[in-house]
Structures are given as C-alpha cells and as structure tokens.
C-alpha cells in the first residue's frame, strides 16, 4: 500500500485562492479527516485528490507516482481511487448489483469472478438481498451502503468520502459511522473523509487536518487537536471551552495549578496571552481562589452547563452535577490551561 | 360585510370572464373544424371525409409529409444532439456565441431559410456564379426534392432537439458523471454508460417535437416542393384552397383533421415520454459540465464552427449576395453590385410598405393585446385547482400545437359567414389574421408570465393584502412591477414570431392585406428572387436585432423564458 502526499498544493479559481500552500503526508492505510467550516477549501482538496480539479501549484503523489503537478495530470479514471458522494451518486438506470459491479466491468472482470466479487461486496455492507432493486427503492442509509460497496469492489488504494453522512438523520449516522469503521478495518485502504462536523471527525479519524480559508490550521490526532489546539480560532472551533487572557501565557505551553491560579488572580498587567480552559478543568466550590457569578445554567441531560462571569468580566464555561441558581456567586479553581497562538487582528474578522 | 364582498366577487367574476373568452378563442376554431370534417358522414361515400380518404393525392401527400418529417427529424437529432452534447458536456470555448448562432435558424422564418438555400445552390445561384463554380444552366436544383425539404426541415427544427436535450443534460447531477469517472470510466464511456441512458428521454422528446414541427411547416415545402410538384399535406391544402377557394372547405377540413390528429398524437407522445423518463435525480445539478477534451478541443471547436458556417452562414451569405446582384444569374462583382433591389422594395413598391405596415400592426397589436391579457389570465390560472389548470393549459396549447394551416382553415370556417347579430364579415380582412394570431400565440406570451408568477413568493401579495390593498391595487402595485420583465419578454417573443409568420397568413391574406411572410413567398413564386432576397435580408436583420435585445433582458427573467439562453 502506498501513502498519499501533498506538497505545497494550491488551487485558484480566477482571482480567488480556494486552497493555498497545503502540505500533508498521509500514511498508507490511514483514516484521515479534512475538517473545517463550509467554504474552507476541504472539498476542493478532495476533488484535487480525485483528479476532478487540477492544482494550480504544488504536487500530489501516491506512493512513488505523481498524480498531479504543474505539468502532469492523471485523469480520475486512472487513479484507482473510490469516492463516496454526499448525494450517493448511484445511477438510477442500473440495479444495485449493476451499480456495484460497474467498476469491475470497466476493468474487464467478467463471468463467475465478477459475480463472486459483487456478491462479496454486497454481503459486506449487508445488502445481498437487495441486489436486483433499483437505487430509488432504497432508503438513505441503504443507498449510502451501496455507494460504499461500489467503492470497495475494485479494491482501490484510496477511498475519498465527501460529507457522506450529511444527508442522513441522526440515528442513522451512528450506525453508518460504525460501517465506515468496519469498512476501513476490512479494506485496509487509505481513507480521506471530508466533513464539517467535528464530532464525526473525532470519532472516526486517526488524524485530522483542520482547514480554514484555504489553509491548513493544524494536522494532528484528535486527542492533540482537542487538548493542544494551536490557535484561538481552533480552540473555539473544536470542543467547548473558554479563552482567558492571562499574563505569563506562552503559546504551546501548559499552565497548571498554582501558576495558572496566580496568573488568573493577577489583574491589570500588560503582556497577556490567550489561554484555553476546558470546562472539565474548572472545579467549583464554596471556597476556591476566584469568585464567579452564575449567569446561566442549562440542563444537558448528563449534567448542567454553567455560564460563569469572572470578576474581571471574562466568561468561563463549567460543568456542574446540580443546578445552581442564576445570579448566585461561587468559588472557582482552574486546574489546567493551554497557551494559544493569539489571533492576528480581531478574531474571526478575516 | 356583504357590501365588501360584492366588489371582490365582481373582480373575480371579471377575471373568470376573461379566461372564458380566451378559452373560447382557443377552442372554437378547432371545434368548428371538427364539426365540418365530420359533417355529412351520413352521405356515405359522398361525405367529404371519405372523398378525401379515397383520393390517392391525400395518401401521396401524407407519405411525403411522413417521409420529410421523419428524415428531417433524424437530421435534427443528429445536429441538435451533437451541439447539445458538445456545448453542455465539454469544455469547448465560446459557448454563448455557439448557442446563439445555433438557435438562430429556429427564429428565422422558414420561407427565408428556404430562399437563402435556394440562393446557395443551383445553376442560378448568385453566390456560385460570383465564385464561378455554378453548375451548368439547366442542371437541376437539388433542393427541389423530398430530401432537400427534409434537410432544411432538419436544420430548422434542430434547435428544438438541442433545447430538449440540453434541459435534461443540465438537470443531470454532476456527481453521477464523476462517480463513473472515479470508477474507471473514460470520458467516452461516461457518455455511453451514464449520460446517454439518463438523457434518452430528452433526446426522444426533442425528436418528437422536431417531427411535429416538421409536419406543420409550410414555408419550406411550399418554396422547395410546389415548383417541383412535390406536395405535403399543408401545401396540398394550400394549393387546393388557392385553386378552388371556399368551395372545397369541407374537404380541406377533413384533410386538416388528418394532419392535426397526427400532430397532436406527436405532442401527446412527447409529453408521455418526458414524464416517463424522469428519474428522481439528486445531487448538484443545474450547471453545465466540463469534461476536458484535452488535445481534441481545438478540433471539436473547429468542427462545430464549420458546421455552423455550412448550415447558417453560407445560406445567409448567399441571401445577401442574392440581394445585391442586378438580376438572377449575374455574378456579383464590385461593378455589378447594386442596392437597387432595396431601393425598389423600400421606395417604389407600395406593396412592400403595405406588407410591412400590415405585419408590424398585426404583430405589434397581437403582442400588446396578449401582454395586457396575460397578467390577469396567469393570475386567475394560478388560483385554479391543479387538475383544472392542466386542462386549461392544454386548451391554450391547442392552437399553437396544431399546424398553422389547420388553424387557418379552422378560422376560415369559423368566420367565413358574417358574424351573427352584427352582420359584419371578418373574412378577407386583417382582423381575421389578428384573431388567429391571438389564439396561436397566446401560449407564447403566457408561458414566461406563468413561470415568473410561480416563482413569486405568495407572501409578498399577502402582505399587501393585510396592508389593505384590493385586487386591482395588488395586481398593479405588487404583481405587475415584479412580472414586468417576463410580460415584456413574452410580448417581444410574440412580436418576433408573428412579424414573420407565413403559415397562417398564407391562407388568410387577401389583396391589400399582405404580410411580410406572404410578400417574400409571392415575390419568389413570381420569379423576383432578387427582390425577395432584399426583403429577406431585412427580415433576418430584424430577427437578430430582436433576439439580441431579448438577450439583454436575460438577467431579469426566470430561467427558460428565453429559449436560446439558460
């Protein structure tokens, strides 16, 4: 199996740079997610990987083979990839079995070999009974599984998934996430999964590339992304938490225990930096070093989510097992904070 | 309460009355025709219908109609399919220009198309003579044949195939083609396995439309076929009417019923196929695809351009050359070139100015009247129950779907006797043509308005209603300004088609009541093809100008209102 590598890849549509300077190395057999808000360029990256778009700069390699660079462009049909589309893209004039078998037909597979492999692919997604149906007669989840089987049948080196769960309801999503995991395990293919849903990306991927406005923001495992995000924007995009402006904060460093509390209590000092504090690192008590007012308490089932306001005016998010009266005052202890890269200019203005 | 309800119900009653009048206008001629055709069935073999069916000329003309219609349809499928696939699926450049040029033949009146091709070929061709490659005198004109008629019919109806196919191509989600490619299909295989099966419905429907249009075409078989004694059904009716007048009306009604039935069967078939071929396609549709042609692109572009040059530019060039020579057969040189024909037509011949005035009055009057009628009509139509809407629309479509000759015969039947009560006869006056135009082009004017009205958010009007605006107030203050572009586009389309119309007026005109379409035809039949060419050049220039002005409104209109734009 061959790894996928992008080096300095950029794509311009006229004056607009949809993607710029993207460098990623994906190991063979890895499950990676491209995550970002809509319009961040993640779908353009996927379409460049598939060969539907040619990069304006940089190159894309699969193993030792150059797929795209300034002069070469291997067309999609010669890349040995599979793709699952958001709309499934099943051909309505073919039966389920014909849809699944089409890549094999194009590769000249016929006879009993063809039937056996189509049967296996359909069995793997548990749709063998529906082989002769038309795609229009299937439910959304079944259609998505047909699309998966169609990818699987030709044993592609890389499988691209473009927001495959966006059209499904919530209950079905959990089940489909499980099918993707199983699909990855069995096929051993490299999977590139595009989504704007961080929980989907976290649940599925080995590594996540977060993109914003055409650029790579961070490329790391889900755990690192959650605990040690690079920037203020990323901290707000992934998970829940509060960003406090504290003196002595260093980007990329932990602030712990007493040092953190000391920084939080010091007010009016120059040279502050943003620090991410996740709600699970906020302890509530009668005493505690900081005083905070409860502004809202929202019931989330397993716990209450508290919106707190500190004495210096900054907002802090915390969890609580019991409801606290809005307007009451409470003691707060911070256990752990993560120093963030400050946002250039006003956050979110760019 | 009751005092408030009275004006409201009165308003609705007025709208309903208007709709009833328009329906009567559309339906009455066809019903009268049906009555006449089926009259005297009790007479046995002497009944007009049997007499027509027993005549071998009927069957020969029917065979000619079918032969030229089907052959023309095949040519249209080939041309329209090629252009639709190339322009919609691939990355050829200059798509806007290619589309405009390809659609032009649909808007050029058929008698002008026929005239320009006649000027292109044959021993007397001014263009060939000027280039010194004309065949010897006495050589046959190859276009005076069934195949010649079919070729021109095909060129004229190819845009219909193009439009129908393009509509289904644009509706084809991009992902379906991309899924095929990533599965390993080459561009040609994508076309063969995915695009073709999914757009076959559009192709077949376009073919049916082309066939129906060919069947009803009068200008082309009249100019090419009548001199050679090659008659199709519409020209047979024309010939008999011209020869025997109203005396053969009953027989002509029977003939008309025959060809009208054939045309309506074609329309019904096309609508059925369109309905059946509709897959529930999901995905990102609505934009052209751009399969890369790679190094073939230049070649494909050149091929399309050459084809357009052959079917559009060469005949038009021949037409222009034909209008500049002093007489047929004289080659065009710097010395021989003359604007005499234009001067003659515009300056001296009273008939040209009269025909132009008649046509402008008829087309302008019909366009204006229909613009006034269409807004309230579309408004009332939208408030009908779904089932009635479909029914009313098919009645309105009837005079447009029927071949023009059929409508003309039906109108003669309806108005040949003086109107009861007022004792005024419309037969032989411009009013008869005017009424026929109103019925025939109502659909053309109405379609953009209903499309626009369907896009209008009803809450806009509801808000005005809550603010206290009555029906007329809402129509004039809210609906009219928002629909004005569509209304205007509909009017312009009606004008564009009506001003060149030949088929209906060919049977309905009388001395002093000539139209532009009739003028070109009669001039050419009279041997004055240089003069005919001069008028035709002016007509083509007018058509292109009107199309361009419609083009400029495109951004303010709903999709599909302007036939040659997306």
TrEMBL record, chain A:
One of its GO terms (cellular component) is ATP-binding cassette (ABC) transporter complex. One of its GO terms (molecular function) is ATP binding. InterPro entries: AAA+_ATPase (IPR003593), ABC_SmlMolc_Importer (IPR050093), ABC_transporter-like_ATP-bd (IPR003439), ABC_transporter-like_CS (IPR017871), Mo/tungstate-bd_C_term_dom (IPR008995), P-loop_NTPase (IPR027417), Transp-assoc_OB_typ2 (IPR013611). Residues 4-238 form the ABC transporter domain. Transmembrane segments: none annotated. Keywords: ATP-binding, Nucleotide-binding, Transport. This is ABC transporter ATP-binding protein.
């Amino acid at each position: 199996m061959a790894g996928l590598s992008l080096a300095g890849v950029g794509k311009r549509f006229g004056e607009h740079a949809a993607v710029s300077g993207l460098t990623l190395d994906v190991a063979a057999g890895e499950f990676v997610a491209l995550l970002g808000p809509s319009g961040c360029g993640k779908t353009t990256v996927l379409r460049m990987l598939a060969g539907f778009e040619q990069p304006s700069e940089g190159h894309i390699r699969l193993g030792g083979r150059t797929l795209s660079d300034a002069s070469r462009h291997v067309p999609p049909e010669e890349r040995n990839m599979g793709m699952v589309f958001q709309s499934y893209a099943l051909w309505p004039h073919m039966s389920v079995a014909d849809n699944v078998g089409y890549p094999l037909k194009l590769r000249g597979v016929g006879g009993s070999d063809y039937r056996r492999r189509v049967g296996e692919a359909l069995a793997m997604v548990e749709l063998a009974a529906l082989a002769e149906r038309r795609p229009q007669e299937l439910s959304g989840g079944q259609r998505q599984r047909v699309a998966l089987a169609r990818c699987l049948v030709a044993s592609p080196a890389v499988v691209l998934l473009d927001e495959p769960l966006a059209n499904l309801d919530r209950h079905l999503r959990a089940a489909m996430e499980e099918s993707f995991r199983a699909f990855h395990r069995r096929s051993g293919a490299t999977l590139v999964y595009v989504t704007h849903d961080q929980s989907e990306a976290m649940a599925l991927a080995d590594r996540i590339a977060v993109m914003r406005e055409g650029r790579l923001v961070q490329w790391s495992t889900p755990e690192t992304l959650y605990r040690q995000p690079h920037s203020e924007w990323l901290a707000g995009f992934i998970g829940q938490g509060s960003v406090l402006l504290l003196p002595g904060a260093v980007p990329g460093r932990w602030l712990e225990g007493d040092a953190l509390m000391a920084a939080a209590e010091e007010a009016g000092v120059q040279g502050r930096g943003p620090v991410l504090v996740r709600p699970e690192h906020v302890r509530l008590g009668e005493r505690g070093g900081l005083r905070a007012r409860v502004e809202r308490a929202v019931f989330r089932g397993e716990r209450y989510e508290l919106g707190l306001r500190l004495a210096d005016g900054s907002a802090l998010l915390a969890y609580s097992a019991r409801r606290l009266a809005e307007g009451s005052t409470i003691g707060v202890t911070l256990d752990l904070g993560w120093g963030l890269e400050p946002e250039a200019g006003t956050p979110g203005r760019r | 309460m009751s005092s408030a309800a009275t004006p409201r119900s009165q308003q609705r009653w007025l709208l309903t009355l208007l709709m009833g009048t328009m329906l009567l206008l559309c339906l009455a001629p066809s019903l009268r025709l049906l009555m006449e055709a089926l009259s005297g069935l009790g007479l046995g073999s002497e009944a007009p219908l049997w007499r027509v069916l027993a005549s071998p000329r009927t069957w020969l003309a029917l065979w000619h109609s079918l032969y030229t219609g089907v052959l023309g349809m095949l040519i249209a499928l080939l041309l329209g399919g090629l252009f639709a696939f190339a322009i919609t699926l691939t990355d050829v450049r200059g798509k806007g220009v290619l589309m405009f040029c390809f659609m032009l033949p649909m808007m050029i009146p058929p008698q002008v198309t026929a005239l320009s091709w006649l000027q292109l070929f044959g021993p007397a061709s001014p263009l060939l003579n000027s280039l010194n490659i004309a065949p010897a005198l006495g050589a046959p004109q190859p276009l005076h044949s069934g195949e010649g008629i079919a070729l021109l019919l095909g060129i004229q109806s190819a845009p219909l195939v193009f439009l129908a196919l393009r509509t289904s191509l644009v509706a084809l989600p991009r992902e379906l083609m991309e899924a095929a490619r990533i599965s390993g299909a080459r561009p040609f295989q994508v076309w063969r396995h995915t695009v073709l099966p999914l757009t076959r419905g559009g192709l077949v429907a376009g073919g049916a439309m082309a066939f129906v249009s060919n069947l009803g075409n009068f200008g082309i078989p009249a100019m090419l076929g009548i001199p050679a004694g090659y008659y199709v059904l519409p020209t047979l009716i024309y010939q008999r009417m011209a020869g025997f007048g109203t005396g053969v009306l009953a027989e002509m009604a029977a003939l008309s019923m025959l060809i009208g039935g054939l045309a309506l069967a074609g329309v019904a078939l096309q609508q059925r196929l369109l309905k059946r071929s509709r897959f529930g396609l999901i995905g990102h549709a609505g934009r052209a695809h751009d399969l890369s042609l790679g190094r073939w692109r230049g070649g494909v572009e050149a091929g399309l351009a050459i084809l357009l040059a052959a079917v559009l530019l060469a005949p038009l060039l021949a037409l222009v050359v034909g209008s500049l020579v002093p007489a047929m057969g004289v080659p065009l040189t710097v010395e021989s070139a003359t604007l005499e024909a234009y001067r003659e037509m515009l300056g001296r011949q009273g008939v040209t100015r009269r025909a132009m005035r008649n046509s402008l009055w008829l087309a302008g009057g019909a366009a204006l009247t229909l613009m006034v009628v269409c807004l309230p009509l579309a408004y009332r139509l939208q408030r009908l129950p779904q089932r009635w809407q479909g029914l009313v629309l098919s009645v309105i479509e009837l005079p447009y779907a029927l071949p023009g000759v059929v409508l003309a015969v039906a109108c003669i039947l309806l108005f040949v006797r003086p109107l009861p009560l007022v004792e005024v006869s419309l037969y032989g006056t411009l009013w008869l043509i005017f009424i026929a135009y109103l019925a025939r082009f109502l659909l053309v004017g109405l379609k953009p308005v209903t499309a626009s009205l369907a896009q209008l958010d009803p809450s806009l009007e509801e808000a005005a209603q809550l603010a206290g605006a009555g029906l007329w107030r809402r129509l004039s203050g809210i609906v009219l300004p928002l629909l004005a572009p569509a209304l205007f586009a509909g009017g312009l389309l009606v004008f564009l088609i009506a001003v060149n119309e030949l088929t209906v007026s060919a049977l309905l005109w009388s001395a002093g009541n000539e139209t532009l379409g009739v003028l070109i035809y009669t001039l050419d039949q009279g041997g004055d093809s240089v003069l005919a060419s001069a008028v035709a050049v002016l007509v083509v220039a007018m058509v292109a100008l009107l199309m361009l002005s419609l083009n400029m409104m495109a951004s303010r209109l709903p999709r599909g209102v302007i036939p040659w734009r997306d």
